[in-house]
């Protein structure tokens, strides 16, 4: 079945990843309509991607078009996702699903009421090499230490990607994102937060949320204790998490002005170390790398050996869309990155931020 899809938000990530992905999967999706409150961006997206209908209002798009699904690529996904789900329209929303747990839970409830699928855009979970790494971690003996590490430079560290320089920006007044509204919602849920802690919250719900999701994919259980601290600006955070069965996790995230992108999950077990180095997702076909260090076999004192798995050149965003198509067309396939899963991420991210000691 070809899924009739509408896209909300024709900004950076739509232009770089989702619109090209939907067009490339023409046997799975028909791009019926695009919507951006900046009309010139929607018109540009339409002109580049096969002339789908153009809208400035999401509600108008939903009303006028018979859509099976929407891909939500603005910054605040709650209101459009709720409307779509209430109308029974399957929804893929970029990360973070929402900035508060209350809103994310409301979306999960709306999806359950209408039966429309809700999937969250943690595309790294669809990267075939990341999946192989997670499988290795899932079978390793006695994991006792893990480290989640990320360093994100300006423009997501994507300075080397020519397409990023070519992203079309509106010639009109840019849609001022509702920073104050977002802040008010977060503070209403968490209580008052000093500025650097609020900054750390927003960093956490930005790129770092991918890695919380990855950590939870490896270790879904709740930590027994969490303790975090941040720098004076809130753009660097370290957290120590203790898990049942004697697992200790170190989370380290920083957003800096150094042009560099590093993202990895390393787990040490009794027999092996598994290190997943996640590739820069904007370099479309750059594979992620999994390194497994282990003792060699044989008599005596076996030497350590390293195996490297790096098998796939498939783009994670495209794999994500293929999975979304399966979820929409086959009721037996549940989203790998579901709304419920995103709620668990939000619980853990909030727990880390609440534990910040200064
Ligand atoms: N998966 C990833 O690695 C990744 C990377 C970057 C961004 N993202 C996520 O993608 C989303 C979009 O990020 P971006 O960098 O493309 O943002 P952007 O600002 O470049 O694009 C957002 C677009 O949405 C439009 N818009 C905003 N509110 C709207 C509304 N109510 N109705 C119609 N149009 C509206 C804006 O005009 C803008 O063109 C964010 O949620 C972000 O977290 C994910």
Automatic annotation (TrEMBL):
Residues 3-122 form the Gfo/Idh/MocA-like oxidoreductase N-terminal domain. Pfam families: GFO_IDH_MocA. SUPFAM superfamilies: Glyceraldehyde-3-phosphate dehydrogenase-like, C-terminal domain (SSF55347), NAD(P)-binding Rossmann-fold domains (SSF51735). GO terms for molecular function: nucleotide binding. It comes from the Bacteria. InterPro entries: Gfo/Idh/MocA-like_OxRdtase_N, Gfo/Idh/MocA_oxidoreduct, NAD(P)-bd_dom_sf. This is Gfo/Idh/MocA-like oxidoreductase N-terminal domain-containing protein. It comes from Actinoplanes awajinensis subsp. mycoplanecinus. The lineage of its organism: Bacteria, Bacillati, Actinomycetota, Actinomycetes, Micromonosporales.
């Amino acid at each position: 079945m070809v899924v009739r899809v509408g896209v909300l938000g024709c900004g950076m990530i739509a232009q770089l990843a989702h619109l090209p992905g939907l067009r490339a999967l023409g046997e799975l999706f028909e791009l019926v309509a695009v919507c951006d409150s900046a009309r010139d961006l929607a018109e540009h997206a339409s002109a580049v991607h096969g002339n789908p209908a153009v809208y400035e209002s999401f509600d108008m798009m939903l009303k006028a078009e018979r859509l099976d699904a929407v891909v939500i690529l603005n910054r605040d996904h709650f209101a459009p996702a709720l409307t779509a789900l209430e109308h029974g329209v399957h929804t893929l929303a970029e990360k973070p699903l929402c900035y508060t747990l209350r809103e994310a839970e409301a979306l999960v409830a709306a999806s359950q009421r209408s039966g429309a699928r809700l999937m969250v855009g943690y595309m790294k979970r669809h990267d075939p090499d990341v999946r192989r790494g997670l499988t290795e971690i899932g079978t390793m003996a006695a994991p006792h230490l893990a480290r989640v590490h990320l360093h994100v430079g300006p423009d997501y560290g994507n300075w080397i990607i020519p397409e990023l320089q070519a992203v079309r920006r509106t010639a009109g007044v840019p849609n001022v994102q509702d920073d104050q509204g977002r802040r008010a919602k977060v503070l209403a849920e968490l209580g008052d937060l000093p500025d650097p802690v609020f900054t750390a919250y927003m960093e956490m719900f930005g790129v770092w949320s991918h890695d919380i999701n990855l950590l939870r994919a490896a270790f879904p259980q709740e930590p027994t204790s969490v303790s975090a601290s941040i720098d004076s600006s809130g753009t660097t955070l370290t957290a120590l998490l203790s898990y049942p069965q004697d697992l200790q996790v170190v989370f380290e995230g920083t957003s800096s002005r150094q042009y560099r992108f590093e993202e990895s999950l390393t787990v040490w077990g009794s027999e092996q170390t598994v290190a997943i180095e996640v590739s820069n997702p904007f370099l479309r076909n750059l594979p992620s790398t999994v390194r497994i260090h282990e003792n060699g076999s044989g008599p005596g004192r076996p030497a350590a050996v390293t195996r490297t798995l790096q098998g796939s050149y498939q783009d994670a965003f495209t794999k994500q869309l293929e999975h979304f198509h399966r979820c929409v067309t086959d009721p037996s396939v549940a989203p790998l990155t579901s709304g419920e899963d995103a709620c668990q991420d939000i619980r853990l991210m909030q727990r880390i931020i609440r534990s910040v000691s200064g």
